[in-house]
Amino acid sequence: MKNKKIKLPIYNNEIEIIINALIEFRNEIIKQGRYANPIDELIIKVNK
Predict the structure, then answer these.
(1) Which of 12, 19, 21, 41 is in the most buried spot, having the most CB atoms within 10 Å?
(2) Within a domain: residue 42?
(3) Any idea of the CA torsion for 16, 17, 20, 21, to the nearest 10 degrees?
(4) Is pLDDT of 16 > 80?
(5) Nearest Cα to 20, choosing from 38, 46, 1, 2?
(6) Residue 4 domain flag
């Protein structure tokens, strides 16, 4: 069984919401003293 990739259209206002949520999540992870680099990478990918 192969995994199929599906691309969904995301509008500018939705991208802003996703990035803000990821930044808040990243800040919580940092407060806990955990490793946040994967979240940083995801923020960069979403921002492109």
Answers:
(1) 19
(2) yes
(3) -150
(4) yes
(5) 46
(6) no
Distance CA(45)–CA(47), nearest Å, equals: 5
DSSP assignment of 14-41, as one string?
Answer: HHHHHHHHHHHHHHHHHHTT---HHHHH
Residue type, 32: Q
Query: Which domain does 33 fall in, by range?
Result: 12-47
pLDDT tens digits along 1-11: 678 888 888 88
**Helical pair 12-31 and 37-47, crossing angle rounded to 10 deg:** 170
Query: Is residue 5 one of the residues assigned to a domain?
Result: no
Round to whole Å and give the CA distance between 42 and 36. Answer: 10
| Chain position carrying tokens 């921002």 | 47
